[in-house]
Amino acid sequence: MTHIDADVKFDSKVLTDVAEALEPHAEQMFKLRRGRWIAVVELAHVERTEPGPDEDKHPTVKVRVTGIEVAADEITAGRLRSIQREMYDRRTSGGTLFQPDEDVA
After folding, report:
1. N or C: which terminus of the chain has fewer CB atoms within 10 Å of its end residue's CB?
2. What is the distance of C-alpha 99 from the center of its chain?
């Protein structure tokens, strides 16, 4: 597979289902200016732009959030963070053998 240096952009349109899933968290998100929330997110391809042969631009792909579930408690957030760490380790291991650290929470 050929590697393409493409830029990723997010489509700002919020689908009804996504808005409904975020609604229970909206007040807390408003109040906590530096808050962070962990979620499971589904992205869908919306648009692709290929620059012309004489343009000095990267190709771009636009994606939209089509599904989201935000962790509503610390137990769920911890489970999702663990999965996130595992996914990060797999993505960045570069084919090396990875031994997870048992002490990492």
Report:
1. N
2. 25
pTM over 0.85: no
Smallest CA-to-CA distance from 15 within 36, 49, 41, 39 is with 41
Q: Tell me: the pLDDT tens digits for 1-28?
A: 567 789 999 999 999 999 999 999 999 9
Q: What sign does the dihedral 31-34-39-45 (CA atoms) show?
A: positive
DSSP-assigned beta bridge partners for residue 91: none
The 3-state secondary structure of 71-96 reads: CCCHHHHHHHHHHHHHHHHHHHCCCC
CB-based burial, 72-88: b 16+ in 10 Å, e otherwise:
eeeeebeebeeeeeeee
- The pair of structure tokens assigned to 27 is 């007040």
